[in-house]
Amino acid sequence: MDSESLLLSLELASGSGQGLSPDRRASLLTSLTLVKRDYRYSRVLFWGRILGLVADYYIAQGLSEDQLAPRKTLYRQGHERRRSKARVPGERGPVAARWTPDIPKTAVSRRVRSLGGLNCMEWSLLPPATEEMAVETSVVKGRFMGDPSHEYEHTELQKMKEGEKVFEEEVVVQIKEENRLVSVIDQIDKAVAVIPRGALFKTPFGPIHVNRTFEGLSLSEAKKLSSYFHFREPVELKNKTLLEKADLDPSLDFMDSLEHDIPKATLQGGYCYHPHFTGSWSIQMERGNALVVLRSLLWPGLTFFHAPRTKNYGYIYMGTGEKNIDLPFML
Amino acid sequence: MEDLTSPKEEKADQEVGEVGRPWEEITVASSQDPESGLSEPLESEQGPERGPQPRSSPPRSPQSRTSTPLDDLTGPDASSAPSPPQEAPSPPSILTLARQELGTPWQSDKTPDVDPKAETPRSPHLEQSSDKGESTAPQMCQSEGNIFQQSQQTGHHLYGPEDVSENNSKQKELRFNIFQEEDSNSNYDLDCAEPGVSEVAPSLLEIAIQSAKAYLLKTSSKSGLNLYDHLSDMLTKVLDERPENAVDIIESISQDVKMAHFRKKLDTLQNENEMLPTYEIAEKQKALFLQGNLEGADQELEDEIAENSLPNLMESAFYFEQAGVGLGTDETYRIFLALKQLTDTHPIQRCRFWGKILGLEMNYLVAEVEFREGEDEEDIEDEDVPEERDDGDSGADEDDEDELPRAFYKTPQATPKEESRTGANKYVYFVCNEPGRPWVKLPSVTPAQIVTARKIKKFFTGRLDAPIVSYPPFPGNESNYLRAQIARISAGTHVSPLGFYQFGEEEGEEEEEVEGRRDSFEENPDFEGIQVIDLVESLSNWVHHVQHILSQGRCNWFNPIQKSEEEEEEEDEEKEEKGEEPDYIEQEVGPPLLTPISEDLEIQNIPPWTTRLSSNLIPQYAIAVLRSNLWPGAYAFSNGKKFENVYIGWGHKYSPDNYTPPALPPVCQEYPSGAEITEMDDPSVEEEQAFRAAQEAAALPAEEMEETEEDEDEEDD
Predict the structure, then answer these.
(1) Looking at residue B305, what is its pLDDT?
(2) Which tens digits make up the pLDDT trace of B131-163?
(3) Which residue of A has its CA nearest to B626?
């Protein structure tokens, strides 16, 4: 959700039960404005929060003018960690690492996550997600702690060669929670970040901009999964046949639609026993059709809201940062 | 062509109205300077406007005459175009149009070296023309009228240049040549040369313009629009709305204008239908707001306030908001009203908002109520249902007995459900999908449902009658599953500050006699409150005030053997099979009521609760917030004296591991397997030989004793 319309957006997304306390809201409004200035973003999105056992992560994202531009690595100057000594009893110290990014080199960078401390005022930049990180952190399960420097221990069997003998040895791998955080945010973004059709448009030269003339989806469109797109680089689109692409408007339909998500919304065959089967999404009209809410079943905690016929839309993640791998059993 | 444009132009004219005015000025200005270089006829047309012309010089009188033929010539020329009848006003208008269209680019292109030069010799002689031309006068008047008309339309025509600019630049050169020719010719060969040249000039110009305009007016075969109108609409919109940086968003404006064409078609029936549900819910919720007015009498009101069972939902919502939990003020208030409706229509002793369970299609709002003494509605009906089912089963068994072999699998005896007001059925739950919709009472829960609910994990759909398709099969539909989950969540997450409740003295003794456990408590009148910081720091300051549900599915343990003894006389067979089971099952004991939550089990090294202070900025007024990690979505707050629990979530228990449905039970045997029906491997040759050798060895000593055995051996071989 856009940081500028944070209050309205939180109110619209409040149906899932998770919100922000007044002091968090107020501090976010202030600090995100500063983040926008300091990092020179054109838009700052409040992404959500990940509930940790000890503390919560508050996540914000900065976007440059091009909404989907490929991400570039941020440079950082050193790892100097400032850990505050004075701790409130019962809580860990504020989230530690704070890197100063080299701003001139990163003016093009697209989405850079920042992570907030306990008071939502100090934002630190997260490193970009990489494939290795995703592989490395995929073995971690369970809840987040709330401390980026926390290290999960994972024992795995590795084949060791000593001369001609090959034997297996248990190796303890240490995985930093920060890496897990980065990779989970990336996964959530890729899997369930949602944007209504028409809210962004692709210019003939490639960059993607916010569509000024977007007036909101109509009521009938708002109830269909096909009116919503994954807010990410298209993956499925390239695999479509020319026939399927024939009706697409290249300036609007340049992202993947939600209707092709797995499990498919319309199942062929007998498995689907109720008519409103919507795959990995739950679509609901709330407040007497004045608000459409999409909740992801794959990543419980992700709520997308859109008030039909208005420009208000956004998504927020408030959850434990764990994927619902039981989904096939639960439908 | 003209007849196509003229009506539209007029229309556009009206639209442009005031907007056109600035343009008008520009065009007038533009038509003045370069005009002189342009063509004589035009000057003469403008004559009257200019009035006193200092530059006018008598010797050039013939020029003005040449201009008239030009006009005359253009007239027929233009009228030779497709549509003659309407032509009367049009020829001058085309000229002016041409002039204006060309005028602007010229000006902007800055060709001063040509203009000033041309100006001096060419400055027209209006006095003369007006003097001389009595015959031209009426014509001029007419044409002037057109000029005005046209100049008003300029806002319109000026769009042209953008697209025609290419033509223009070519034409410009062309025209210059012409004028220069004109210049040279004019002095001597006025009568013959001039008309000839001027005949070429307007026709070229006009053809170019007309073809450009015709092109712009070409109607799209797809949309039925034409570019000319579209551009004019766009500019009208731009000028009406005056957006910032219009050039950057011209695409959007264009799209907007196009969209406006389509929108008109989407009226009537379709929209009406779409809005219906909106009104429906609004109508229903209207009833919530009106209910206060219906009961007018003051007396009743006082009574009501006295025996109020309605919780102050807004207050607890305020505290939960401090904790970052809650449904938003608006929705909370509607729920509040809906709760009021519930308490008004039912004999309710105590009521609280239990929480919200998210579903796939709709959500459930859950209210936890306690009926007044002696007013347990419909409980008897509920209990009848399972009993009937049991009867049906046993009846079927008896019928089958004669014909088919009876299955010796015996369904384990169903644990009876707990009485209402005890254990898991202590409270009654009402659910509704949205505030304003009717509250539906959930059936009371049976142990079997709780036991099965623990083994399955299904999303709620939002429809109470939806079937639960699962393995192991769930006894009941979604309303039963919902009720079972509510019981589990309540048992796991309803906590209160230590000391807020105490065991009731009288009732406690009775319970102790029966079960050795107490399951009732009352509010402690002497509760002094606990420091918020203590509540945050130590989990032992929080206690469960809802009984733990045993693995049996009941809160109070039920001894299954006890019952089987009672039924002993009726069913003898049963007794035999029971004999295999241990005679005495050790009684399950859960943690007693009001156990501190610090004794809750960890979930694979994950602490079951997370506590925190609601605010670090102003800790002196902060409240303690408790978040369950076992049931994500369950929260509790306490400000030291007050507390409240709420659950908002999907209704599933947390597990770090993925869900695994229980394995299928082993396949039942068709018959008891024994030695006589077991298939054996054929002995191999070696085995047979070895066997024979052994037999012979055994036979040898016997041989001496009895000879008959030898005979038998031989026979066998």
Answers:
(1) 55
(2) 444 444 444 444 444 444 444 444 444 444 444
(3) A53
Q: Is the ipTM of this complex over 0.90?
A: no
**Three-class secondary structure of residue B103 per DSSP:** helix
Identify the CA nearest to B574 among candidates B447, B398, B415, B412.
Answer: B412
**What mean pLDDT comes out for the span A309-313?**
89
How many CB atoms within 10 Å of residue B367? 25
Return the DSSP state at A274. Answer: S
pLDDT at A273: 45
Best CA proximity match to A125, nearest among A55, A31, A61, A217: A61
Q: To 10 degrees, the CA torsion angle through B597, B602, B605, B611?
A: -30
Q: Alpha helix locations (H) across B110-222?
A: 114-122, 126-132, 136-157, 159-188, 193-217
Residues of chain B with pLDDT under 50: 1-197, 294-297, 379-401, 507-516, 564-582, 709-710, 713, 715-717
A200: helix, coil or strand? strand
The whole-model pTM stands at 0.67
C-beta separation of B317 from B648 below 8 A: no
Q: Which residues of B touch A119 (CB under 8 A)?
A: 616-617
Could you give the maximum distance between any two Cα atoms of chain A, in Å?
A: 73
| Whole-Å CA distances, B680 to A38, B227, B676, B686, B716 | 84, 94, 10, 17, 21
| Nearest-CA distance A174 → chain B (Å) | 17
- Sign of the alpha-carbon dihedral angle for A151, A154, A155, A157: negative
CB burial readout A123-133, b (16+ within 10 A) else e:
bbbbbbbeeeb
Which residues from B are below 8 Å from A16, CB to CB? 358, 648
Q: Do B461 and A274 make contact, defined as CB atoms within 8 angstroms?
A: yes
Kindly report, residue by residue over A39-56, the tens digit of the pLDDT: 777 778 888 888 888 888
